[in-house]
Design goal:
It is a single chain. With 123 residues, the protein is an alpha+beta fold. The protein has one domain. Helices cover 24% and strands 41% of the residues. The strands form two sheets. The protein has a five-stranded mixed β-sheet with strand order 1-3-7-4-2, with helices on one face. The protein is elongated, with a radius of gyration of 20 Å.
Length: 123
């Protein structure tokens, strides 16, 4: 029974979705979590410090990835996310042989998106 429970826990951990990763750029100060985050497409005019470089896991649409990045930035105490870039990886369509049916199956292409942003704190 214990081995089945362990196997289920390991499978559940392996199926979990990857999370946004953060590389801290300024470890000298920690901040309380914030409740509101701006998403900026260009450098703000207000003075700020760069707290962390955030990178999303690969996903299918930018809005969902930014929501997860905002949650991470809130935990770090950031005031805004400064958009850096996004990278796109295409997985082309392919055809694979299905031995059970004895035929071929077409598999459509997929586009994966990864977003990078900098969590910032206004001075």
């Amino acid at each position: 029974m214990k081995s089945y429970l362990l196997m289920i826990l390991l499978l559940a951990a392996g199926c979990s979705t990857p999370r946004t990763s953060a590389v801290m750029l300024n470890n000298s100060t920690t901040y309380s979590p914030t409740s509101n985050i701006e998403i900026l497409m260009r450098t703000p005019e207000k003075p700020y410090i760069e707290m962390a470089l955030l990178e999303s896991p690969e996903g299918f649409n930018v809005p969902d990835l930014l929501i997860e990045m905002k949650d991470m930035a809130k935990q770090l105490g950031a005031d805004a996310l400064l958009y850096v870039n996004e990278s796109i990886r295409q997985h082309p369509p392919s055809t694979t042989y299905m031995p059970i049916t004895g035929g071929y199956q077409s598999i459509g292409g997929v586009t994966y998106i990864k977003v990078k942003a900098i969590a910032i704190k206004y001075k």
